[in-house]
Amino acid sequence: MEHLGERRAAGTDGVAAADAAAIPTGQVAGSEADLVLRLDQAMSERLRAEGLLPIYESLEMPLVEVLADLERAGVKVDTALLARMSRDMDAQLQALTKEIHALAKGEFNINSPPQLREVLFDRLGMKSGKKTAKTKAASTAEDVLEELALVHELPRKILEYRSVQKLKSTYVDALPELVLPETGRIHATFNQTVAATGRLSATDPNLQNIPIRTPEGRRVREAFVAEPGHLLLSADYSQIELRVLAHLSGDPTLVDTFRRGEDVHDRTSREIFGALSAVPPAEQRRISKMVNYALLYGKTAFSLAKDIGVSRKEAERFIEAYFARYPRVRSFIDETIAKARETGHVRTLLGRLRRLPDLRSKNVPVRMEAERQAMNTPVQGSAADLIKQAMIDLHRELASRKMRSRLILQIHDELLLEVPDAEAEAARALVTEVMEGALKLDVPLVADARLGRNWAEVH
After folding, report:
1. What phi, psi does 354 have (nearest 5°)?
2. What pairs with residue 138 in β-bridges?
3. How far apart are CA 403 and CA 408, in angstroms?
4. How, if at all, do strands 224-225 and 75-77 pair?
5. Distance of CA 305 to the CA centre of its chain
6. In which domain, by residue range, is 20 found?
């Protein structure tokens, strides 16, 4: 029988390793279970006192079974496709290396910040005011390269090189090593108690962070496939955080937009620019979308200006125009921060609590970050609660209907299922119904569901 000393002698507190080795595993498990039992009453009372017992009992505990089944199911990966991608990326990196060396007028180690710094700022004479925190040397971080890429091709190629290299090492080469031989699938771990907003996170590997906007990222998603005779079903919420914001703020214009089924970014574009603006409609919509999400995530005019490529003064004008058209959003933000400063915490729709002691910090950047968290957490955290509720409801419905479709991934506001061909349409209808009915808001929830043979096909 395996003994405690064999598993974790190093973690034994106050017991000699030799004595610990004599304690059977079963006895250790019993002791740990007894400890949990003795903590039950004290922890339950604390949860009750802080108003957290309902969300613990009705959301987080039922979700444990859902996540256990999801982890057990795993997701099938086409390792042969990933092997081909790895070879293609090797060739792509070699070609980029030649281009970079030509632009740099000589060979250097692309992965060496000191050598890259010498090429950019000494050899080619580029200018940047940002310094590294430790050495105070000129920075070669991504944001610096993005700025320099506006005036020279070399930084753009460096960024492209880094993107391909990171994708190759993090996913293309790493994923096959994580396939469980017995199942031929990857079984990631989902964590309930890591993200402060209540969002789920994934590790070993982090399947929630595979890029979708780049061609290489989309190719990686092609490697996530359905078993023969099955399809993948992806369902995600449409503009869920903006819908939650409409519900929480009660802004009549924002609420009306979603109730009418209008495109919120088009509506914001009309509200901000007006009918006579000289800015082209496509550019209006792009800017309006950036403004919608920038304010949702607490970005400043400085950050927004950088994101949309305008002056700080122009960004301030967009923000002022936005709040003039959505005044209840402004009130909601101000009231949320004021209440959080008074109580020291914020809550989501279902009562999840996040403490924010830094709201009273004398350090201005620290306090501003806490204010950003105070306005963002009720929105993002409520969206996280909502998708968790949808997962629980869907898991129960699939079981009660004895369907063979199963959840295999959760990526923030998206659920990914593997469904038998014969159940595909029924599963699509069910997941849409469940997600749109997970919580009752003042605006309708809308879920889009798509079927395909791989993860890339369903986007």
Report:
1. -130, 120
2. 131
3. 14
4. antiparallel
5. 23
6. 1-37
